[in-house]
């Protein structure tokens, strides 16, 4: 029988029981078995040629001791995510006392780019029911990678810096870290005020505002923060209502396309804590980002309270702490941003973080084009990612691009009916394959007569009921 857990499909959920039966009745268990799965990268980045994917099954039962490798697979020139893999192992090597976990990574020229950051139990029957093997970015891809330009052309992940005008201080120094997964870290220092330099740090989520050509930060601030995107590496502050600031003063943050995360301090944080094999993880409620918990500061009090109140061993428990985020050594690869607990406040049994996913609206949503006419669509090197925006209002205008010219026109929508009219465009000469992709987009828009909007997915459909394109709402509030 084949069992499926999340993105993994494998047979040996009862291997340890089989070993026991084999030992009692003398049945041979030397035959090799295999574990198949898929590893995914959620960030929309193109990997450079020649990346190496590795997946390993390890026995991690002994805390503090090196993990014992049960099986390994290495894929040279692995291409792009997702990565399908199979790991062969010998069933007789399974130890009934063992705790087996899957670890995966992607490297380029020896540099670790992506890796799993949570324990993924395998080959045993007591693991979680919805396991996902997700690879998290630990380093920016080396030269030769293909950065995609996301919302309004921003090159992400990246750090933006600048000192902005201040009415009653010398200036407000900003350090803003943005990730394409739509979360951010922000540090602000009010310089030379009457009480000296004041500091405020926060984390949160951002979304794109197509009408303003801006991104909006939602975090611990009392009001959302609006930033107009004026270039791939440039943001200009807007006022609290989201209007441009009419001033000759410099309200600009700039970056160079690289990410240099800043440590954050003195924040009150709510999140879901899990604890396995002497390692704690904290999923911050507002951003949804997971951080390892450093075993320092007031961590012992947090761990004791978790162990006393957790509903199930290793299960999630909502906790409230005061602390910060800083780089700490990882078991493998570069240092990782980790939660440092300055003060444990309380545990909150029976509560969970509120869901963050919004239901997409047809209008004023940034619709990324994922497929057209049955083929996957991917962003090209240093080009805008293919997308469509349908603006609300009496004019019912739309704009669309595949990364070269911008098409502008009108649309009509009535129930499930949708049609695009008179798409004019700029006349830039598009290099291959953008020229063919642009013709395909124009064909899709001309043939669309119907739509199907479900959750965060929009399908464009022709007169015969056949799908023309699939779009995803990726920059939602």
TrEMBL record:
Signal peptide stretch: 1-30
Gene3D superfamilies noted in UniProt: 2.40.128.270, 2.40.128.640, 2.40.50.540
Pfam families per the UniProt record, alphabetical: META, NlpE, NlpE_C, YscW
Domain DUF306 span(s) in chain numbering: 360-471
Top-level taxon of the source organism: Bacteria
The entry's keywords: Signal
InterPro entries linked: Cu-R_lipoprotein_NlpE (IPR007298), DUF306_Meta_HslJ (IPR005184), HslJ-like_sf (IPR038670), Lipoprotein_YbaY-like (IPR053196), NlpE_C (IPR033450), NlpE_C_sf (IPR038139), Pilotin (IPR039366)
Ranges of residues in domain NlpE C-terminal OB: 265-353
Alphabetized PANTHER family for the sequence: GLYCOPROTEIN/POLYSACCHARIDE METABOLISM, GLYCOPROTEIN_POLYSACCHARIDE METABOLISM
Protein name, per record: META domain-containing protein
The species this protein was found in: Marivita lacus
